[in-house]
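S.,

Sequence below, as promised.
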Amino acid sequence: MGHVRYGMLQSLDGYVASEEGELVLPPPGPALHQHFNDELRSTSLLVYGRRMWEIMRYWAGGDPDRDEVAAEFADLWQRTPKVVVSRTVTDAGPGVTVVREDVVATIGTMVDKIAGDIEVAGPDLAATLGRAGLIDEYRLYVQPVVLGGGMPMFAEGFRPHVRFAGAESLPGDVVLLRYSRGI
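The prediction came back faster than expected:
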């Protein structure tokens, strides 16, 4: 059975993107990016909502300006199986499963069949899966930036019950706060 994590970089005031869904947080530097590479190395499945899929598709293509750490991330990302939850995405490419209906049941079946870590990205998708009890761990990567508004880490109305599982200082003055699903 898979271990489902929802984690994203967020501002100190809890936002992951602009109101329009554009990433406005500073990109991770090489040392922090290496942390994400190490996390991705142990990930068995990536699950994205449509907006996060559109952002993350950048890693599918080649970019000659990528440094060594970013190139490694791209390689790991390309090799990791992916699921996109969307009613509008029609063809996401090889190695990508598109889920249009019965999201909770479909992802629940995948969780039962997959061993290892399953990474979920996107506030709305996380709320849907979290309400169904499918998210085991919440990872808040807090950057020392205040945005003053935007898209929150937790979708409106989603208030998961959690318990503190740990904290870690990461490069770039980022703090990782980990919370397990509470009872």
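Residues 100 and 162 are 29 Å apart (CA to CA).

Coffee later?
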